[in-house]
Design brief:
mainly alpha, two-stranded antiparallel ribbon, 2 strands
């Protein structure tokens, strides 16, 4: 890449961080829903093997989610939108699931990660675009084992996809009649519990991989991280502020739109 290409790439990563940060605060998604496909395509342009590109995209995304989720969490907490009782129910399962997801991701090919990302994102998008929420129950399960299983699955798939907890936890919580703004706010905290063990796992499993970009720590691109996370942290409070001004219907539609577009893009990559 020449100097002009490097400048454009740097600007793209900074812009990606701004969009991801806004979405993190707005939807509680940790920004990974934007960062993963952008990085995946960028690493492809850099001639990184497809078998490594998706792992690098997921690992780097998880790294940026740590500061982004923290910034979003603080903003939502000020609005009283973080449910501490739910964190106590789901926290351990989310954390353990993320560890499991990082381990699984290290054992499968990049195309598998891409397919999982595309399918799960599309299913969630189709559910969220419905005029009425798919309601499974008027309240969260009471049993601790069922809450543990739900949170374990959310944590595992989120780590595999390189996303914050909101992509899966928000629709799941909505199906149990959980208030949407509380679900989004609490998802920012869940994203932190996913990202920390997740990125640690991707650093460890990618440590001995030869075909990685320069300045990488395992499957984490330090250049990508340093260019993306400052703007994600800066823009996350803006997203949180917007979230508390939007009505419930528009918040759901915004969530569904971004998930759907991202999923279609990933399917296109797989079939191309």
């Amino acid at each position: 890449m020449d100097s002009i290409d490097l400048i454009y790439t740097g600007l793209l990563l900074i812009l990606t961080g701004a969009v991801a940060g806004t979405l993190a605060g707005l939807l509680g998604v940790g920004g990974g829903i934007v960062i993963v496909p952008v990085l995946f395509n960028l690493f492809g342009l850099l001639d990184l093997p497809a078998s490594t590109a998706m792992h690098m995209a997921v690992g780097t995304s998880l790294a940026t989610i740590v500061p982004t989720s923290l910034s979003s969490l603080l903003a939502h907490h000020k609005k009283g939108a973080v449910d501490i009782a739910l964190l106590k129910k789901w926290g351990l399962g989310i954390f353990a699931g993320s560890v499991l997801g990082a381990f699984i991701a290290g054992q499968v090919k990049g195309d598998v990660l891409t397919a999982v990302f595309a399918v799960v994102a599309l299913l969630v998008s189709l559910n969220m675009v419905r005029s009425e929420t798919l309601t499974l129950s008027p309240a969260l399960p009471v049993g601790s084992w069922l809450n543990t299983m739900i949170s374990l699955i959310i944590g595992a798939f989120s780590a595999i996809m390189g996303i914050g907890g909101g992509t899966l936890s928000v629709p799941v919580l909505s199906s149990f009649s959980f208030p949407i703004h509380k679900a989004v706010g609490t998802a920012s905290a869940l994203g932190l519990l996913i990202a920390i063990p997740g990125v640690t796992g991707f650093i460890l499993i990618g440590a001995d991989v030869a075909e990685r970009p320069p300045f990488s720590l395992g499957y984490v691109s330090l250049v990508g991280f340093c260019l993306i996370f400052p703007t994600t942290v800066l823009f996350a409070p803006l997203g949180a502020k917007i979230a508390h001004r939007l009505n419930r219907i528009w918040l759901r539609r915004t969530f569904a739109l971004f998930l759907g577009l991202t999923s279609l893009r990933m399917f296109y990559t797989l079939l191309g």
